[in-house]
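2.7 Reproducibility. Because tokenized structures are sensitive to small changes in the input, we list the exact sequence used for UDP-N-acetylenolpyruvoylglucosamine reductase, including any N-terminal residues retained from the expression construct. No trimming or masking was applied before prediction.
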Amino acid sequence: MRILRDVSIKEYSNMKVGGTAKELIFIHDKNELKEIYDTRDRIYLIGNGTNTLISDGYLDISFVTLKEMKDIVIEKKEDEYALVRAYSGVDFNDFIKFMEENNLSGIENMSGIPGSFGGITNMNAGAYGTEIFDVIEEVEVFDPKEGIKILKKENMDFRYRGTEIKDNKWVVVSTLLKLTYGFDKEASQDKYNQRKTKHPLNYPNLGSTFKNPKGTFAAQLISDCGLKEFKVGDAQVSPVHPNFITNLGNAKFSDIQEILKHVKEVVNEKTGIMLETEIIIVE
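Resulting structure tokens (single pass, no recycling of outputs):
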């Protein structure tokens, strides 16, 4: 493992917001996790920081990352499918490239989603009607109480943007996926292109801020309530995609918190729907 102390944690957040962390620990072997969890009180697992809003000021937290565990292994090849293991630190779009290089198929609709494989699995991320659990066979996790264990998909609780892994604060070590053959390059490129045109990728952001309520879309509700471009300090509801909050330069944690509060209140007042945040907030 590698340990950095008194780290400017905003450098590890896609939002570029956050204070000074007590320490940042890079895990290189899954067996190192037990020592960390046995010797630290406040631990927060961070991947690519694409879904995490971190408070300003000093954070008495041991941030732990598996982002340097980046192996992708084809464990089995059959005539109809291949079993592929992706370790937690694999950048999701590097995995899409791996699929293309090996003519594998199944999650092309998720092309362009930012984040590491651990985070994608932890929250059951998805896009355009496809979720990562559509192709998952099993997940290897570290449970602070029981150690390393394998969870079979058929025995797991997973749902829209949630899993029992997330609920129990287990650590995703690796994910085994069952993929078919015949990479759909056209579908993959289409999703990349849509993200480039519909998402504000030119500013730091955390992706979708709110979960989509059943039967509607958070972005539509926010837009209908006249909240596009609502701004506090250097934080702004994106005019490109109103379910994104962007950092225009020097946004503070408090700026973003104020936007979250205001958007929830206005949408609830005008539609009767209380939006639920999809991002994770660390204080």
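The radius of gyration is 19 Å.
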